Amino acid sequence: MIEFWHWWVLAVLLGALETVAPGAAFLWLSGAAALVGFALLIWPSLPWEHQGLLFALLAIAALAGTRFLSRGSAHTTHTPHLNRRTAQYIGTLHTLDGPIVNGRGRAQIGDGLWTVEGPDLPAGTRVRIVGAEGTLLKVEKA
């Protein structure tokens, strides 16, 4: 005979499994098992077949509901290029730290000294960053 606390133990085990394999799937299964435990606490004569069916329905509803709700929410941020640092600088204006000679030069951008590529220009010239290739920033005269 399955008792309410069996479902709660399953809920705890599934919750613990979520910490090892994160992704929120086991979290929802854990919640479904806990709810079946509460249902069995309220209706102690609930047959095991109905308990399993209730668990399956709750788990499917929770997983499907989560997928449906998360699909519609677009995650926007004020820093869309956070992990692509060079892309953050495209379109910005900067002053050359040194001259561009034979197509290569240096510019102080943010907290670092960057290699820039563009037409030969003297130090102190204002340039616009128009592209990036790895850590090389492509510039043109502003």
From TrEMBL:
This is NfeD-like C-terminal domain-containing protein. Its main location: membrane. It is found in: Membrane. Gene3D superfamilies: Nucleic acid-binding proteins (2.40.50.140). It is a multi-pass membrane protein. The chain crosses the membrane at residues 7-40, 52-69. Keywords: Membrane, Transmembrane, Transmembrane helix. It comes from Azospirillum brasilense. One of its GO terms (cellular component) is plasma membrane. The keyword Transmembrane helix applies. InterPro entries: Membrane_assoc_protease (IPR052165), NA-bd_OB-fold (IPR012340), NfeD-like_C (IPR002810).
